[in-house]
Amino acid sequence: MKVLFVHQNFPGQFRSLAPALVARGDTVLAMGVNNFAGYPGIRYVQCRPDRNTMTDGHPWTKDFDSKVIRGHAAFRAALNLRNEGFDPDVIIAHPGWGEALFLKSVWPEARLGIYCEYFYSADGADMQFDAEFPSGSVEENRSRLLVKNAANLLQMPQASAAIAPTRWQADTFPEEFRDRISVIHDGIDTSLVKPNPAAGIQLNKRVNLTRSDEVITFVNRNLEPYRGYHVFMRALPELLARRPNAHVIIIGGDDVSYGAAPPAGHSWKNIFLREVSGRIDAQRVHFLGKVPYKDYLAVLCTSAVHVYLTYPFVLSWSLIESMAMECAIVASDTEPVREVLSDGEQGILVPFFDGRKLVDEVCGLLDNPEKRRSLGQAARSRAIAEFDLRSVCLPQQLGWVDKLFAAD
């Protein structure tokens, strides 16, 4: 089988599937906008846009314009590949940035499978969820999101099949498309992501933390409201006052992954840090920024309680990784968290905005090692049973590709 992967930041969600197809003997190419160092056996084609998004049009059309520009760049690269003699049997694409918009024009016989990460809605999900950061009226959002979703709506009818990591994310898509979406998570390697009783982390010359310490962990790709950073920071003064021996480790960058950017010249990290800076013991709050994967896992290994907060939005890999690490988790009672954590069984769910409840549950777990152990073991068992890469998710992904190849 000849397979073309399309992702603006390849490998992205295809980090395990693409090498697995190579390993079983398929011919695999990949296409994307950003630089990629390469996988053995995978040729990578970079498709660079030849222009920037327009600046003189309607603000709502800029997002769609950028996707058309990226789609056209991928279209040109596809023509070159076809002229070289490459004709894929299957195209597997993330449609979110537009690169797959026009590929079926080049290869009409190829079967297109798309990754359904998220379909925006004006209500019932991230929009209007947090009144502190209004995004306009419901009516305005409904209109604006029609345009924002346009690329998805153009690509879905071209697709023979689709895949989504959670049922809730699949169900954000229009009902008429859902029967094409298979719910298969990206997968976590639970043989790598596993607890280590001897783990420890040296933060500086004075602070060396182990699993015997009160370590509270919080992880985002970037520290921002969509992932509850503001709620967590506002809870810290009370949490640190009630736990005088606790240390808090925060991992995440200063950029923006989701939602609105902070005011010019500022970062969400510093905005909310300044808000509480006079009420926390800075010697016990450790910002590590973005860290190598092995260091991130070492932090999770030392965690006594892990906090995960999110708007109703896409699920982070970090939640499943913390489950696989046997962390005692306090998480927001939001979708799709509810889909993977049952309250009181694999973790504790709290209302997203209820900082006092968050503090109470974290302190309660710190006082109850047996409950932490029980929740952590149940969380790891569920991670292995439902999200293990090798035994569950990757075989399902490969089966999905085979069905895509055989689709009419």
UniProtKB/TrEMBL annotation:
Gene3D superfamilies: Glycogen Phosphorylase B. Keywords: Transferase. Residues 25-192, 205-381 form the Glycosyl transferase family domain. InterPro entries: Glyco_trans_1, Glyco_trans_4. It comes from the Bacteria. Pfam families: Glyco_trans_4_3, Glycos_transf_1. PANTHER family: GLYCOSYLTRANSFERASE WBBK-RELATED. This is Glycosyltransferase family 4 protein.
